[in-house]
Amino acid sequence: MLVRTSSPSAREQHVTHPEPPVEHLDVLVVGAGISGIGAGRYLKTSHPAKTFAILEARGASGGTWDLFRYPGIRSDSDLHTFGYEFKPWRDEESIASAPRILNYLREAIAENDLEPHIRFHHELAGAEWSTEQARWLVDVKNPQTGEHHQLSANWIFSAGGYYRYDEGYTPHFEGRERFTGPIIHPQHWPEDLDHTGKRVLVIGSGATAVTLVPAMADEAAHVTMLQRTPTYIMPVPKKDALANLAGRLFGPDRGYAIARRKNILQQRFIWSFCQRFPKAARKLIRFINAKALPAGYPVDTHFNPPYDPWDQRLCAVPDGDLFKAIRRGHASVVTDHVETFTERGVRLRSGEELEADVIITATGLYVQPFGGVPLVVDGERVNLPDTVAYKGMMLSGVPNFAFAIGYTNSSWTLKIGLLCEHFCRLLSHMDHYGLDICRPEPSDPAMPKRPFLDFGAGYIQRAVDQLPKQGDRMPWLTSLSYHSDVTLLRSESVADPELRFSRAAARSVVAR
Q1: N-to-C CA span, the chain
Q2: Is 113 exposed, middle or buried (0-12, 13-18, 19+ CB in 10 A)?
Q3: What pLDDT score was predicted for residue 458?
Q4: How far, in Å, CA of 167 to CA of 15, rounded?
Q5: Co-location of 437 and 344 in the same domain
Q6: Is residue 270 located within the same domain as residue 376?
Q7: Which residues of the chain are under the pLDDT cut of 50?
């Protein structure tokens, strides 16, 4: 018997295989720098049953302290307050170099077993919130391969800071292409740069510039810091004698707690004094500068900013290293404007030409909130300038999204710790009442608003129109006071009339 076998049908030939399920996490932390590592530790301690991952676009942890490699890079805050409250800083130097800080951060990762939670080469490319499902669907990109995949999460905790990691800010300089030597931005420092015996010109006057100048001065023929506007610069001891004494007398844990409290009070006093008595603060800083500089040095030309102390951040120089380099004749400061680059260096508005073999543009950062990730809520793109920051950690109208931005007038990490604690308490509150969604909403839509980062620094002012706003009252006012935030973020209830909680199924507002 002849049996006819039929060929497969078109449907059978094109079998559709189901897509693999999207991995779901309770919390997605973005960034494995000092903020993201802290967030991971607080989550693991306060919510051990929750699933979370820390996405890191680069191939290494440490954030800023692994990215920047320029000579002398160090903290400009003491590590007793810049370090974590849960992990004592045991080094004798409280103003520490980047390698020491990086080692400290990676110790925190190891001690809290966070390595399995960190996913390297995972860049958050987009996030869409669904109120119906009460979760974020995020697009994750591998920067090396360009491949994309998706994750979902109940919460996103943005811990990547506020500047672009892939590009530093350099203003337009006329004639830049004419200069025959290397022009370097500190954010992209070449490993093979040899400045020995060379004339180095550093353009800028902020924390990066005042770090680079003394760090390069001993090997270079001469280092010149060219600034358009002076900055307040204060010498601080590299080693905190009282903190080290407390550690020896009371042990590392209690000694660290004492030093931390002492330095918090000290920072608060200095900032408050500058705010209340700006003229006296200006005179005091000038006196200290004049004493550290050579006799007859033109202090008022190069170290007399046109603004009051702490209208912008004060620059700290450990053991007065910048002043020592000037006194030795290894470094100098010029206050003028760049007219044009030349083949041999830079010609100034005054007509003077500064010759150089290497030019470093220490001209700042590009501010980029939340890594530039587009946020979409129920199909509508979030326009950040239309949002208002709630307690400096959430955005009006954006559910289940938190972020970590530290202090501008004190150690960054002081605020990060409080924000992480508050975030974990918020998760506990929602778990206790069976809530799925948390959305900040101002009760007064007409509330007056102003910039979220109300700070005079150039890198902030260039991006102020791209940032969220803050209100004129709590909880929409961004606090700059650690002591106020201890009450607001650590002590007060997370339940708030300006927070709207709901459950995914009913999506009904629950007042607690």
Answers
A1: 80
A2: exposed
A3: 64
A4: 46
A5: no
A6: no
A7: 1-13, 506-512
Residue 361, beta-bridge partner list: 203
150 with 175, same domain? no
Helix (H), strand (E) at residue 286: helix 278-292
Q: Which of 343, 363, 383 finishes a domain?
A: 363
148 vs 116, 119, 132, 373, CA distance in Å? 21, 14, 25, 15
Closest CA to 135 of 399, 420, 433: 399
Provide the greatest CA pair distance for the chain.
116
Distances (CA, A) of 105 to 53, 65, 93, 175, 246: 17, 9, 16, 42, 23
DSSP strand pairing (52-56 vs 118-120): parallel
Asked if 61 contacts 37 with a C-beta cutoff of 8 angstroms, the reply is yes
Q: What three-state secondary structure class fits 74? A: strand
Sheet of 338-341: strand order equals 338-341, 345-348, 353-355
Phi-psi region of 433 (alpha: psi -120 to 50; beta: other; left: phi over 0): alpha
Alpha helices by DSSP H, 374-411? none
Reported pTM: 0.91
Range of the domain at 425: 23-165+367-510
Residue listed under structure tokens 């326009």: 383
Residues 392-409 as b/e (b if ≥16 CB within 10 A, e otherwise) read bbbbbbbbbbbbbbbbbb
The contacts of residue 129 (CB under 8 Å, 6+ apart) are: 135, 136, 375, 376, 377, 378, 398, 399, 400, 401
β-bridge partners, 93? 239
Q: Which of 193, 186, 123 is closest to 364 using CA atoms?
A: 186
- Same-domain pairing of 288 and 336: yes
Provide the pLDDT for residue 455.
63
Cα–Cα separations (whole angstroms), residue 34 to 39, 63, 157, 421: 9, 7, 13, 15
> Is 319 a member of any domain?
yes
Q: How many residues does the chain have?
A: 512
Q: Report which of 103, 29, 108, 30 is spatially closest to residue 65, judged by C-alpha positions.
A: 103
Residue 312, domain CATH: 3.50.50.60
Check residue 254 and give its pLDDT: 95
* DSSP-derived secondary structure for 216-284: HHTTSSEEEEEESS---EEEE-SB-HHHHHHHHHHHHHHHHHHHHHHHHHHHHHHHHHHHH-HHHHHHH
Distance CA 255, CA 481 (A): 24
Q: Which amino acid is at 463?
A: A
* Closest C-alpha to 223, from 73, 342, 355: 355
Beta strands of 146-221 (E only): which ranges? 148-158, 163-168, 183-184, 199-203
Residue at a domain's end among 363, 389, 422: 363
Query: Considering its fold, how many domains does the chain have in total?
Result: 2
- 248, part of any domain: yes
